[in-house]
Amino acid sequence: xxxxxxxxxxxRKAKLKRRQQERVRAAQERAEEEPQPTPExxxxxxxxxxxxxxxxxxETMIQLxxxxxxxxxxxxxxxxxKTWREALLRMPMLPPxxxxxxxxxxxxxxxxxxxxxxxxxxRRRYKxxxxxxxxxxxxxxxxxxxxxxxxxxxxxxxxxVYRHTTHATHTTHTTHTTENSSELL
Length: 185
Prior knowledge:
Elements: H1 7-33, H2 39-90, H3 102-107, H4 126-146, E1 156-158, E2 161-166, E3 171-176, H5 178-184
Antiparallel strand pairs: 1-2, 2-3
């Protein structure tokens, strides 16, 4: 059965075949161009290889010795710790013979445990403190106005100067009397 391939498949196969032939030819040229090592170079290479293998053997032996020493040291440390702990447990425990005086107990700094359940007090801003002070002053002012005297608006005489004060605006208005005006000029 001779079936003809579509053009794109035929061209693809031909291209792949050409590339394969080029790769084979390039590999053969490289093999021909490689210089063969001389017997002296080959002997030197074998000597270096033996030296390298000997060094590797030495390094593995050193590593094994280190590992063995480490395990022996760990065992010795475990045994020493066990004997030390046993000796401590065999020692009689005496009650403490000293006690701190009450004055020293008060001076000692004992850390205070703060429970995480109790929330920290909220920090008050300047504005909040100001408003609280203002509200604290309000009941006094209402008591004064209840008596029929409004002291916040009443002018006061101090050093010959009338001062009108208003708490709400925090401003002071001054008016000079006629007697003191000649002294001021």
